[in-house]
Amino acid sequence: MQTPTTTQIRTAIEVLTKLGERLNTHAEHSVMQLSESQLGAHYAGRIEVGAIEQTTRIEAIAAQLKSWRDELLQQERQCVSHHV
C-alpha cells in the first residue's frame, strides 16, 4: 500500500469535517420535524445521541489523520535537511 500524500490526508480531514457538519445539520432538521410529544422527545433524544456518537467517531478519526499528516510532514522535513 502506498502512503498517501499530506495533501490527500488534508483532503480526507476536510471531507470528514464536512461529514460531521452534515450529520449535525441533518439531526437538527430531523429533530425540528418531530411533533412536540413524549414520543417526539424520545426520538429527538435518540437522534441527538446518535449524532453525537457519530461526530465523536469522526473527530477521533480526523485527529488520527492529523497526527499522521504531522508525522509525514516531519519526515519530509528531515529528508530535506539530510539532503541539504
Describe the structure.
With 84 residues, the protein is an all-alpha fold. It is built from two helices and no strands.
Topology summary:
Layout: H1 6-33, H2 38-83
Give short descriptive properties of this protein.
rod-shaped, mainly alpha, 0% strand
Summarize the structure.
With 84 residues, this protein is mainly α.
What structural category arises from helix and sheet content? mainly alpha
**Helical content class:** over 70%
Number of DSSP E strands? 0
**Computed CA radius of gyration, to the nearest angstrom:** 19 Å
Along the chain, the helix and strand elements come as HH
